């Protein structure tokens, strides 16, 4: 039986620092971020199904959230201002992400590859799955800005405003519900939420 380095690579996601160009009061790594995206995506799927007649699988959505940034174990976390500087850079970076995903998938035993393609390659996702995972990713970035601002770090003010605009443009009832019900607590102290 041939050895696989797939999970050894994934375990290194904890070494990839997010927000590398910004001063951080609280460091965040890709592994922590992926866990948070998974939990928020799961909640968005449940909210969609229970309150807005959605029909998505919350367990699958959560798993997609866990794997949504695996390519960064190879590419690192390219800062948003660089990644989306212009359409040409964004398009080329997407190719780099796809190549990194393929490299990771090639590390898997043949009998498991198809299962992981369905979790890593967003071309296999439904439109609803893509939207929910992307919205969860954006919500988690927004939560990070709130936590940093609450800790007195004004470095995140512009990012917060940019993310608020993105979230507003989703025009998604489940995202709006999550913002109304869960987001206010992230600006409170431990004593205030206890």
User: How many E strands?
Assistant: 0
Largest sheet: none
The CATH superfamily is Hypothetical protein af1432
The percentage helix is 55-70%
Structural class: mainly alpha
- Any low-confidence stretches, pLDDT <50, length ≥5? none
Please give the domain count.
1
Q: What is the CATH class designation?
A: Mainly Alpha
CATH architecture: Orthogonal Bundle
Strand content: under 5%
CATH topology: Hypothetical protein af1432
Mean pLDDT figure: 94
CA radius of gyration is 17 Å
The quaternary structure here is single chain
Distance between the termini: 51 Å
The gross shape turns out to be globular
Description:
The longest helix is centred in the C-terminal third of the chain and has 24 residues, at 127-150. The protein has a single domain (6-193), classed as Hypothetical protein af1432 (Orthogonal Bundle). It is globular, with a radius of gyration of 17 Å. It has eleven helices and no strands. Helix 2 packs antiparallel against helix 3 (58-67) and helix 2 crosses helix 10 (173-181). It has helices at residues 6-10, 30-51, 58-67, 72-75, 80-83, 87-106, 110-120, 127-150, 157-170, 173-181, 190-193. Helices cover 65% and strands 0% of the residues. It is an all-alpha fold.
Keywords:
globular, 194 residues, Hypothetical protein af1432, 11 helices
What's the arrangement of secondary structure elements?
Elements: H1 6-10, H2 30-51, H3 58-67, H4 72-75, H5 80-83, H6 87-106, H7 110-120, H8 127-150, H9 157-170, H10 173-181, H11 190-193
């Amino acid at each position: 039986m041939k050895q696989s380095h797939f999970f050894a690579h994934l375990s290194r996601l904890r070494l990839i620092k997010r927000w590398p160009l910004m001063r951080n009061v609280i460091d965040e790594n890709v592994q922590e971020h992926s866990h948070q995206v998974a939990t928020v995506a799961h909640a968005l799927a449940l909210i969609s199904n229970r309150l807005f007649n959605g029909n998505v699988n919350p367990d699958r959505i959560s798993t997609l959230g866990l794997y949504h940034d695996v390519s960064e174990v190879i590419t690192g976390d390219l800062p948003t201002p660089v990644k989306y500087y212009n359409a040409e850079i964004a398009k080329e970076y997407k190719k780099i992400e796809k190549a990194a995903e393929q490299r990771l998938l090639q590390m898997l035993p043949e009998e498991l590859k198809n299962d992981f393609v369905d979790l890593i390659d967003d071309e296999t996702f439904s439109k609803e799955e893509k939207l929910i995972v992307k919205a969860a990713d954006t919500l988690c970035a927004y939560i990070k800005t709130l936590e940093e601002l609450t800790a007195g770090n004004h470095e995140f003010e512009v990012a917060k405003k940019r993310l608020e605009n993105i979230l507003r443009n989703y025009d998604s009832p489940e995202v709006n519900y999550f913002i109304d019900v869960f987001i206010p607590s992230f600006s409170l102290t431990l004593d205030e939420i206890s």
